[in-house]
Amino acid sequence: MTWTPVGDVLPSMLGDARLELHWATQLVSAPGATWLPSEADHSHTNLGWDDALGVLVGRSVGDEHLRAALVLGSLELVVLEGERERATLGLAGRDMGSALTWLGEHMRRDAAEAPELPVHDMPDHPVSHGAPFSDGDPSGRAELEAWFSNASAAIYRAVADEPTASIVRCWPHHFDVASLVVLDVDADAEDARSIGVGFSPGDDSYSQPYFYVNPWPYPPADELPPLDEAARWHTEGWTGAVLTGEQVVDAGPSHQAALVDRERRDGRAPQGHAARVHVPSRG
């Protein structure tokens, strides 16, 4: 899991590529959303980063245990049988409907209909209105591919020693990669204290990639401790320690990985206990 230096495309210039990839990711989630039992946390729709193949890959479905995957840099939809590519479809010039039909044909030949997209709010984009995917920003897509690969490895390292950490997954709703470290394992989900460790390629909060560590419940804004070096507190709509893509890039190619790992360590401590990010006691 070697860090790939980022910054060939400025983080602030990745918005268009991110939106198109966000919509393409819905295709990878569609088989799980359609053919797997529904889970309350929507985990039947989530994805993981396969470092060996360099793809975002969905959940296994059917007797043949096939998986849909997305090659971000080349904007290709793939059906995997184990680690082998069973079929590949370039999305440029194709719309969502034809891509879903293709998935149905290659993943569930006995299916009467194509898989359906997961249902959740999504940012607006022409492909959501029937327009075809473009082939417009290969450099931006390649840059985001590097960000996702780096982030998945960094989050895995951050939570590897945490016995209550969830598996590192990509969630199609927000297009983020995250793990949740639960501090109160015997409490109800809504009441349990936890620390989220994640990465977003950009959203309404920041129009660029960023890493975050956010505690639950959110501490009062006036009780947040100072953070070392580049990280900052975000308190609008949600509370968390944030390291933006621009800050990572500014560290220089040889120092980017170390900066991300250091800020992760500053946001959490070993064995599931909050360090600099203070998590209030329940009750």
Q: How would you describe the overall organization of this protein?
A:
- With 283 residues, the chain is of the alpha+beta class.
- The protein has five helices and eleven strands; from the N terminus they run αβββββααββββββαα.
- Strand 6 and strand 7 form a beta hairpin.
- Helix 1 (15-35) packs across helix 2 (96-107) and helix 1 (15-35) packs across helix 3 (138-159).
- It starts with 14 loop residues before the first helix and ends in a 16-residue tail after the last helix.
- 44% of the residues are buried.
Describe the structure concisely.
The protein is of the alpha+beta class and 283 residues long.
Low-confidence stretches: 268-278
What are the secondary-structure elements, in order, as H or E? HEEEEEHHEEEEEEHH
Q: Beta-strand level of the residues, as a percent range? A: 15-25%
Structure classification: alpha+beta
Helix content: 25-40%
Largest sheet: 6 strands, antiparallel
Number of helices: 5
* Global geometry: globular
Order of adjacent strands in the largest pleated sheet: 6-7-8-9-11-10
What integer value in Å does the Rg equal?
19 Å
Ends: how far apart?
A: 41 Å
Q: Quote the average pLDDT.
A: 90
Per DSSP E runs of 2 or more residues, the count of β-strands stands at 11
